[in-house]
Model the fold of this input.
Amino acid sequence: MRLFISTGEVSGDLQGGLLVKSLYRLANRFNISLQIEGLGGRKMKQAGANILYDTTAIGSVGLWESIPFILPTWWVQQKTIKYLQANPPSAIILIDYLGPNLAIGSYLKKRYPHIPIIWYIAPQFWVWTPLGRDVQQLVRVTDKLLAIFPAEAQFYGRLGVDVTYVGHPLVDYLSNPPGREEARGKLGITREERLIVLLPASRRQELQYLLPVILAAAKRIQEEIPKSRFYLPISLPAYKATIETVVKGYQLDVTLWEKDSLEVLAAADLAITKSGTVNLELALLKIPQVVLYRVNPLTMWVARNFLNFAIPFMSPVNLVAGEEVVPELLQEKATVDNIVRLARELLTPSRRNEMLRGYHRVREALKNEKGDVCEQAAMEILCYLRQFPK
Done:
């Protein structure tokens, strides 16, 4: 059995890596000869997938922000399609990564309708998009959808897609994280010190729009709370030089962390973070967080005035809870004053405990009573393919 997995960006690579591990584990258990290849990054490669092209740095949010990635994305799509023509897989598994995956899936469905297309972690149309062309196209190309959010399963189920809710893989991935005291001991953080983790970017555009305001806020916090310590995990090695250059301009005492970010997150008292999958990681690790997001001001103006952009929440933590568990600062609200004010609040026991109660509700909503989420997703894939008509 040959499976082709297509994903992009840092979070997609993490989810892809977890799935690849589970697929190989089940294949060994049931004596299935399995080969996995695709688009992704380091996590998938470490799990045993043959990566044709690294797509972790090819991604953006916004109109103008996407322009530099149009040609690289198109090039990868064309190369991938040519490869799939010469090497048709038993099935293709699409993980998030809307634009490229929809293009690849649409081509395959038209040219090779017998090859099943399984979408795992579908685009969040259920949050921010009306029933437009992209939604209809996704429904047409998808043979099976594995949902990680309850609302996601309900949304696509109503559209007639064959959906199975499997739960969120991070619940299992973070079920036994490093202990707080152990993690702080390894980093040399004393009980009196406040460890604040800065998480500005998994996309290059975020280095421009989020990194400066996060560093400016951290500088202010450092002045107001002398015993504060700052760590900044680097999501991709390609971002290191840019981050180092920007950090120097703020004269901030911050440690740039290039190892597994989990070692730092587990020790933290607070995170100042972009919106994304990392918000769920922090929630499951019980780390208070301030969530912010900015794009090009012109992009936001166009979205609000011409595209009817409106979302109930932007952080997946709040989307799952259906209420504001973590504070969100979107666009013009993402200011140094607001970040510092919320950071001070979340470093108090009462506000922290309030957020932890919200985190518990989120964890309960994402749990799967059947156990290991990634293993169930892998089992659903293998069982589906055995009964899919050839």
